[in-house]
């Protein structure tokens, strides 16, 4: 069920990041963090935890600009998560 939930939520995460929607990114990352923590997917949990914190920081800073580095890190995260999910599938 964890993998199915992640597969359903990753497109939402990608959309939030592509749309520079920090609050939506934070919410999706928070849900994924809880799910991954519950099943002990520590590497996955670490990535979404970082995204959640990044989403909080970006949402608080608003549209003040100069956040290219943060958004570049966020853009890489879904690919990292896909790789981790592939490892989990292989393990199972």
Give an overview of the whole structure.
The chain has 92 residues and is mostly helical. The protein has one domain (2-91). Helices cover 86% and strands 0% of the residues. It is built from 4 helices and no strands. It has helices at 2-18, 22-39, 42-61, 68-91. Helix 1 (2-18) packs antiparallel against helix 4, helix 2 (22-39) packs antiparallel against helix 3 and helix 3 packs antiparallel against helix 4. The longest helix is centred in the C-terminal third of the chain and has 24 residues, at 68-91.
List SSEs in N-to-C order. HHHH
Major beta sheet, specifics? none
Give the structural class: mainly alpha
Q: How many beta strands in the DSSP annotation?
A: 0
What portion of residues belong to β-strands? under 5%
**Rg result:** 13 Å
Shape: elongated
By DSSP (H or I, 4+ residues per run), the number of helices equals 4
Low-pLDDT parts are none
Alpha carbon gap, first and last residue? 12 Å
Count of the domains:
1
Helix content: over 70%
Mean pLDDT level: 92
Write the layout of secondary structure elements.
Elements lengths: L1 H17 L3 H18 L2 H20 L6 H24 L1
Helix pairs in contact: 1-2, 1-4, 2-3, 3-4
Main traits of this protein?
92 residues; mainly alpha; 86% helix; 0% strand
Q: What is shown here, in short?
A:
The chain has 92 residues and is mainly α. It has helices at residues 2-18, 22-39, 42-61, 68-91.
């Amino acid at each position: 069920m964890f993998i199915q939930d992640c597969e359903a939520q990753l497109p939402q995460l990608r959309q939030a990041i592509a749309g520079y929607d920090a609050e939506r990114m934070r919410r999706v990352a928070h849900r994924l963090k809880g799910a991954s923590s519950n099943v002990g997917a520590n590497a996955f949990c670490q990535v979404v935890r970082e995204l959640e914190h990044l989403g909080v920081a970006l949402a608080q800073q608003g549209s003040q600009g100069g956040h290219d580095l943060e958004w570049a890190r966020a853009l890489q995260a879904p690919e990292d998560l896909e790789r981790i999910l592939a490892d989990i599938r292989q393990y199972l």
